[in-house]
Design a protein that fits this description.
With 605 residues, the chain is α+β, with helices and mostly antiparallel strands. It contains 18 helices and 18 strands.
């Protein structure tokens, strides 16, 4: 069996031998990216370089990126879905050597020194062509030259990559699959099927084109790139012929630990198996969110809302298998002991993670008790209504309304799935559509909507966003001047319309303090100060007084942006050329984000 650690080591060994420079995983909390709540792929932190900026380590880089995806959170517990996973990736920046990348993919997959897959078990797909772009016969020919017999042309749905909104870099991709040996489902069976014969293992995206404006046709990208991705956990499963991602590595260790302490066994039912898996997955994700250098804690908005949801689902599942939640911290230790060497922040923040996890578990455990009481009240109310209605010859069905379900969730933190489960036990149904409607109405009103939902894609790079990004530098400089150099950015979200900045200050800002901050930023704008940058080593950046989280993830060289004698920060995002471009800065709201963290929302007008 090839372990996940072996595959990670082989990945770096292989690509470094080909001249690729290793870069560290970035934070799981994106910086200045309004399109996603979490880093969902290795490409997200590389936005400036995919759009043409020079990377400090050159134009050939590779890494293993920690990722969180929550679009399929309801599917977690089956054989393949995870919220946290590690993504193996490599990039050609500003060039698109398709032949080399396909040859590298083939070598890594088939060489006995690396994954050692029999080439007869491999199938690949390439873009079939349409009105957007021509048939990718080039990739087809390279795969055939490598000796792959089963190469399929598939349509845009399967072999074309583009941003969620359709504007920006795009292009064909080629995907690699392992043939499981199952019989074909039909004469037309191919990797496009869901029959299980072919399992995807790797994806090479060729960003050769760009759509500049909505509705435009594609045109060649001036500096094309290659972006590849291989999910580590899925690869371990496929290579070793396992059935589930929970059958290997640290996830299996966590499952085994839960089995030794839960009173209901793993294999007793599908429900118990699913509960084990949700606990194992969600606690690992909670560790990486809580332990991240940007320090997200449970809350009702944005990343904090997702974190709270993960922890509460784990608590509910622990109830399903009669597992004492006191063991959650032992599971956290299992994960820190395994991942801590690769991700220093979760090792450093181990105790903080446990404290915050305990707080949320305790809070929700109490809410569960209150929720059960409220659930009983709802049922008593329906029964009374039935009794009254029957006297008048009316029939009332055993259905809990969508509004009641949502109130249980929203007010008491009672998961909808738990309401459904309890209802089923007493012969009741729930109005699922009514619940969804109430939930969607809530989502539309929620402040978390401003963070984008869970779309993939590149951050906005418009002039408006660049100007607001520059304003965050000035605002942080003002905050440090007022409250000291201990003030650090704890998160930000920027759209073309507004900026949002989280920072550590221990009190609500007074109207006078807000006015002072506005005046500080606007004074810098009036002075028309050029915004400049230099590339330097991390050590040089430290000595220069640049502000930043000094970790090895930055690479050998970093970009330091300077605004006169006001601000000097390590940063890779888009900026204005001069402070005069910002026109006028206005703070529209100051509020609490979480304990010890304040939030400012501001605009440029």
């Amino acid at each position: 069996m090839i372990s996940d650690v072996e595959i990670k080591n082989k990945w770096f060994e292989f690509f470094e031998s080909k001249g690729f420079k290793r870069i560290d995983s970035y934070s799981i909390i994106p910086e200045n990216d309004p399109t996603v709540l979490f880093t969902t792929a290795g490409m997200h932190p590389l936005v400036p370089y995919l759009l043409g900026e020079t990377h400090p380590k050159g134009n050939k880089i590779c890494n293993i990126q920690r990722c969180i995806r929550t679009t399929d959170i309801e599917d977690v517990g089956d054989d393949s879905h995870l919220t946290f996973f590690e993504m193996l990736g490599n990039w050609f920046l500003g060039e698109c050597d398709k032949e080399k990348m396909i040859e590298y993919s083939y070598e890594f997959l088939t060489s006995p020194k690396y994954l050692g897959i029999d080439k007869k078990r491999l199938a690949t797909t390439v873009f079939a062509g349409d009105e957007l772009a021509p048939r990718d016969t080039f990739s087809y020919d390279v795969w055939k030259k490598c000796g792959i017999e089963n190469v399929y042309f598939l349509d845009k749905k399967h072999n074309w990559w583009a941003l969620g909104g359709g504007v920006g870099p795009c292009g064909p991709d080629t995907e690699m699959f392992l043939d499981t040996g199952k019989e074909k489902c039909s004469e037309k069976c191919s990797p496009a099927c869901d029959c299980g014969k072919y399992l995807e293992i790797w994806n090479d995206v060729f960003m050769q084109y760009v759509v500049e404006h909505e509705g435009d046709a594609v045109k060649p990208l001036k500096k094309p790139n290659i972006d590849t991705g291989m999910g580590l956990e899925r690869t371990v499963v496929v290579i070793n012929g396992l059935k589930s991602v929970y059958d290997c590595g640290v996830l299996k260790k966590a499952i085994d630990f839960i089995s030794s302490h839960a009173k209901i066994s793993y294999l007793e039912s599908e429900k118990s198996k699913r509960s084990y898996r949700i606990i194992a997955d969600h606690l690992r994700s909670a560790l990486f969110i809580l332990g991240d250098e940007r320090g997200v804690v449970p809350s009702n908005v944005g990343q904090g809302y997702i974190l709270r949801r993960l922890i509460r689902r784990a608590v509910n599942c622990a109830r399903n298998i009669d597992l004492d939640t006191k063991y959650f911290n032992d599971i956290i230790d299992i994960y820190v002991d395994r991942h801590g060497e690769d991700y220093a922040d979760i090792k450093r923040n181990r105790e903080f993670v446990k404290v915050e996890l305990d707080k949320e578990v305790e809070k929700f455990s109490k809410a569960l008790e209150e929720g059960h009481k409220e659930f009983d009240k709802v049922i008593r109310g329906i029964e009374k209504h039935k009794e009254f209605a029957s006297k008048n010859g009316e029939v009332v069905e055993n259905v809990i309304s969508g509004k009641a379900c949502f109130r249980l969730y929203d007010t008491f933190g009672f998961p909808f799935e738990l309401t459904k489960e309890l209802a089923k036990e007493i012969g009741y149904d729930v109005d699922e559509e009514g619940y969804k409607k109430a939930f969607m109405e809530h989502q539309e009103k929620s402040r978390s909507a401003s963070a984008g939902t869970f779309k993939g894609g590149l951050a906005d790079i418009s002039d408006a966003s660049a100007h607001l990004h520059t304003a965050t530098h000035l605002l942080m400089a003002g905050l440090r001047k007022m409250f000291g150099n201990g003030v650090m950015q704890k998160g930000s979200n920027i759209t073309p319309e507004r900026m949002r900045l989280d920072f550590n200050v221990d009190h609500k800002l007074t109207p006078e303090e807000i006015k002072t901050l506005e005046d500080f930023v606007n004074d810098a704008i009036k002075k028309e100060i050029p915004v400049t940058y230099e590339e330097m080593t991390l050590e040089e950046a430290k000595k220069s007084g640049a502000v930043g989280v000094f970790e090895s993830k930055y690479g050998e060289k970093v970009k330091v942006y300077t605004i006169g004698n006001i601000s000097k920060e390590i940063c890779g995002g888009p900026h204005a050329k001069n402070t005069k471009d910002l026109h006028h800065f206005k703070i529209v709201k100051e509020e609490s984000s979480s304990a010890g963290i304040r939030r400012i929302k501001a605009i440029l007008d």
